[in-house]
Specification:
It contains five helices and six strands; from the N terminus they run H-H-H-H-H-E-E-E-E-E-E. It is α+β, with helices and mostly antiparallel strands. Helix 3 packs across helix 4.
Length: 157
């Protein structure tokens, strides 16, 4: 019998059971969405570490790594190495993520820069208002403070 199947019988025997009671008798609690949120966090954390490992790699328009990147090429490469395939462009990547508010963002989420409804740049949120990204021609992959409020956030699912 799985832990999931034991919960109803434990609760029936114990009447109203608290989480501590269930834990004490070897039961488990299932929280809807918790497993997928945890796996999204570890996926994002892995991708963030991969992007950071590319610090100093030169920007090249259209490049997807492993030595040169454009903005969406860096996010595509980082998530692919972490185990998740993303589409090629920033706009396509935005459409493939679960959109989240700034207050719910966390390290490993994607940050999409937009002008009106048009997305023009993407990076990986590193926490404390900073992103890892491949900025522009003549620059390199680096950590930088988010410079505008015109951003949307997406969590890779």
């Amino acid at each position: 019998m799985t832990a999931l199947n034991r919960v109803p019988s434990l609760m029936a025997r114990a009447g109203t059971a608290s989480a501590l009671t269930l834990a004490a008798v070897g039961g488990s609690i299932v929280i809807p969405g918790a497993a997928s949120e945890a796996s999204a966090a570890s996926l994002g954390t892995k991708a963030l570490k991969i992007a950071a490992s590319k610090k100093g790699s030169p920007y090249q328009w259209g490049a997807t790594g492993p030595y040169r990147f454009d903005c969406s090429g860096l996010t595509l490469y980082s998530f692919k190495k972490a185990g998740k395939k993303l589409p090629r462009t920033a706009a396509q990547q935005y459409n493939r993520t679960r959109h989240i508010s700034a207050s719910n963002r966390r390290a490993g989420d994607l940050v999409f820069f937009h002008s009106g409804r048009s997305i023009y740049h993407v990076g990986i949120y590193a926490g404390k208002g900073k992103i890892w990204h491949a900025p522009k021609t003549g620059d390199v992959v680096r950590l930088q403070k988010i410079w505008t409020r015109s951003v949307w956030y997406g969590r890779v699912k």
